[in-house]
Amino acid sequence: MSSTPVIGVLALQGDVREHLIALAAADAVARPVRRPEELAEVDGLVIPGGESTTISKLAVLFGLMEPLRERIAAGLPVYGTCAGLIMLADKILDPRSGQETFGGIDMIVRRNAFGRQNESFEAGVTVAGIDTPVEGVFIRAPWVESVGGTVEVLAEHEGHIVAVRQGKVLATSFHPELTGDHRIHGLFVDMVRTGR
Hints:
Layout: E1 6-10, H1 16-25, E2 29-33, H2 36-39, E3 44-47, H3 52-61, H4 65-73, E4 78-81, H5 83-87, E5 89-92, E6 105-110, E7 121-125, E8 134-138, E9 143-147, E10 152-157, E11 160-166, E12 169-172, H6 183-194
Parallel strand pairs: 1-2, 1-3, 3-4, 4-12, 5-6
Antiparallel strand pairs: 6-9, 7-8, 10-11, 11-12
């Protein structure tokens, strides 16, 4: 792979533009992904925040659910924020009827765990591998209830897991793309570039 990886942003719903900007700032070629043939052309993928049930339904509608599951299982580097974290969970504690996930991280997540929209907040989060705290924007954010033995916990907030990594799959409960701090995107771009 070239030193400038091509990273897609799943453009079904959510803050796609902000992720495209953050990835470009972290020295990746960023492009939206809406179709299986676009997914086939990327070296890595970001699954943005939004509404996880809507993303699940649209992924099925656009024919992306199975191709995405297959690519994640085959080792595609993926980073999910907020609803993206939910979509990367192998299990949701309280799924909506018919809600599916892409899977990829051996974890159980709780949707809207930090409260409703009007309880959104910002907080400094200490993330393993990043030298100073990042500003975390938590909007109807999930948290990770529990993880399997091969999942690395990268950050906690008030005793709850808010950032994890398993192999080439990274996920945060919060939205770094809304802050102008691109270090977590940089971490993900490095994962894609180095293949580990």
